[in-house]
Write a structure and sequence with these properties.
This protein has about 120 residues and is an all-alpha fold. It has helices at about 1-25, 30-50, 55-70, 70-85, 85-115. It has one domain (about 1-115). The protein is globular and about 50 Å long. It catalyses: fluoride(in) = fluoride(out).
């Protein structure tokens, strides 16, 4: 049964990422996808701490976050910035992607508790 939840989450995450590529130009679509993937992972971790995460974890953490986030595209875009010697853009992009990703993953754990407790 877990495989079905992972597949369903991956379908939703991959579809969202594809939609971002159609609406938002690169590298911003990659940024949005990775940030939302970090949030989904934080929510999954938060719910796992509070409940029996037998369905939530495979769907949110493995499926949705895995299908939505695209770290290989991030690496490709960073590599292109290195080739073009766009150091300032590279440092800002990397800083905000990692920094905001960590913050949203952390906030996701807190929001999961608030959602679970109805606050």
């Amino acid at each position: 049964m877990n495989l079905i939840w992972v597949l369903l989450g991956g379908f939703v995450g991959g579809s969202l990422r594809y939609g971002f590529t159609r609406l938002v130009p690169a590298p911003y679509c990659t940024f949005v996808a990775n940030i939302l993937g970090s949030l989904a992972l934080g929510l999954a971790y938060g719910f796992a701490q509070l409940t029996d995460a037998s369905l939530i974890h495979p769907f949110l953490a493995l499926g949705l976050a895995g299908g939505l986030s695209t770290w290989s595209t991030l690496a490709k875009e960073l590599g292109e910035m290195i080739k073009r010697k766009r150091w300032w853009r590279l440092s800002k992009y990397l800083f905000w992607t990692i920094g905001l990703g960590i913050v949203l993953a952390w906030r996701g754990t807190i929001w999961a508790a608030r959602i679970y407790h109805g606050v």
